[in-house]
Amino acid sequence: MKGSAASSDTAETIDTGEVLGNATFFQAVMNVLNILTGVGLLSIPFALRQAGWAGLGILWLLGIVTNYTGKALVECHDVVLQRAKAESGNGAAPPMIGYEDIGGAAFGAIGHTIVSSVMYVELLGTCALLFILEGDNLFQLLGTKLAGSSGGYMVLAALVMVPTVWLPDLKSLSYLGFAGITATSTVTAAVAYTLLTGGFPAGAVTSVGNWATMPLVFGIMAFVYSGHGVFPSVRASMKRPEQFPKVLDVAYLVVGGLCTFIGAAGYYMYGNAALDVITFNLPKGLLATLCASLILVNPVAKFAITLDPVAVAANTSLATVTPGAPAGVRRFAVRTLMAAGCLAAARFVPFLAYVMSLIGSFLTISVSVIFPAACHLSIFRGKLSRRRLLWNYAVVGIGVVCALSGTAASLRALLQSTATA
User: Fold this and answer.
1) What is the topology of this protein in the membrane according to its UniProt annotation (predicted)?
2) What is the chain's alpha carbon radius of gyration, rounded to the nearest angstrom?
């Protein structure tokens, strides 16, 4: 791809400073789990507060749909890669093939532009969201001891988060991913302990379905399964990229199970009092403090891998324009400036759940649901079975409905929150 990922077994022809193609199956699973677990998972009880128990159906539906579109994206990638090899005349693979190139192959130059623009904005928005989560968690944990607001804590968090973008490759990031997954697992255990010991207020009010506010959850739940913009990078980092569909299956099964448990347990315990991050609801004391401390690991673990595709794209473009510049310096400058921009955006609109819903509704659903299925329809035109054809159209339809209704609802909620802040 001319930006977000590279092919699995070729080196870049331009010295961009990126190293790819050495991660194992386990490391790839860790990277995908790192992408999918964290912010969205911890907000599932809040999403059920908006949707009622019916929200679990949305969670499962979007899990099935996004697992399929992840695999569809891989199928498209392979076709585009083979075409590029054929067009090269010598059978050599091009240096980079990824999501935006798939959009270009499906819909021409406008497809390339739309897919890359939406994908990069989504990833940068997610990076800003990670700063918001870190600031909120630190403020919840420490109060005003080190900073006067969550925005101040975002700046302190940046001192730890930004250096992670300087790590050399996704294999290195897999170790951070393991730390983030460990933190999520510990929080899951804490939620289970609270549920089993009865350490929560009795009589929480729940409902079967809250139809008026249900559109708000489309974005939050899509956000749980978002990662399609990064999937090509993870696949490109593997020693055996043909195993990537199995990587997705393992990761999605784990994430789907965790989301179902945390969502159901959190909503059962706290009902309409569920906060935008479940750890904020846990009883004050050692357990809540431990969870809040561990959750601080998640944004640190996710930040670099989320920023990676955008940084690779910018770095590669600059390498073409300024071939004489030292690759290491260029890589350092690009990633640092992008991280600083995400921090500035996070401080401007610090409303975690509604920003997540907006990003998820408009951007994530486009990248993770609509675009992969639409590209698959175009690239495999005339070659799909009737079942696959209808399923792709159904996926596009589901994505469009969720995106339109979810974006409208989250914009209203965000504007109301901003007006009353």
Assistant:
1) Multi-pass membrane protein
2) 21
93 secondary structure, DSSP code: P
CB contact at 8 A, 287 and 65 = no
The pLDDT, as a whole number, for residue 22 is 81
Report helix, strand or coil for 238: strand
Number of Cβ within 10 Å of residue 341's Cβ equals 13
> What is the predicted pLDDT for the residue at 92?
63
Give the per-residue pLDDT at 5.
35
Phi, psi for residue 46 in degrees, rounded to 5: -65, -40
Contact between 415 and 228 (Cβ < 8 Å): no
Residue pointed to by tokens 């799909």? 384
238 φ, ψ (degrees, to nearest 5): -85, 145
Q: Quickly count: other Cβ atoms within 10 Å of residue 362's Cβ.
A: 22
Cα separation, 113 vs 354, in Å, equals 27
- For residues 165-176, one letter each, b for 16 or more C-beta atoms within 10 angstroms of the residue's C-beta and e for the rest, the string is bebebbbbbbeb
- Of 397, 418, 359, the C-alpha closest to 221 is 359
**d(Cα 282, Cα 266) in Å, to the nearest integer?**
9
Each residue of 106-129: pLDDT tens digit? Answer: 999 999 999 888 888 878 888 888
CB 318 within 8 Å of CB 18: no
User: What is 251-275 written as a DSSP string?
Assistant: HHHHHHHHHHHHHHHHHHHHGGG--
Structure tokens at 210: 């809250």
The residue behind tokens 């179902």 is 260
Alpha carbon distance 217, 123 (integer Å)? 19
The domains found in the chain, sorted by start residue, are: 25-420 (1.20.1740.10)
Residue 414 has pLDDT above 80, yes or no: no
Tokens found for residue 299: 């944004």
Tokens describing residue 116: 């890359």
CA angle 121, 126, 132 (to 5 degrees): 130
Residue pLDDT, tens place only, 237-274: 888 888 999 999 999 999 999 999 999 999 999 999 99
Tell me if 194 sits within 8 A of 283, measured CB to CB. Answer: yes
Nearest CA to 233 out of 154, 312, 331, 151 is that of 312
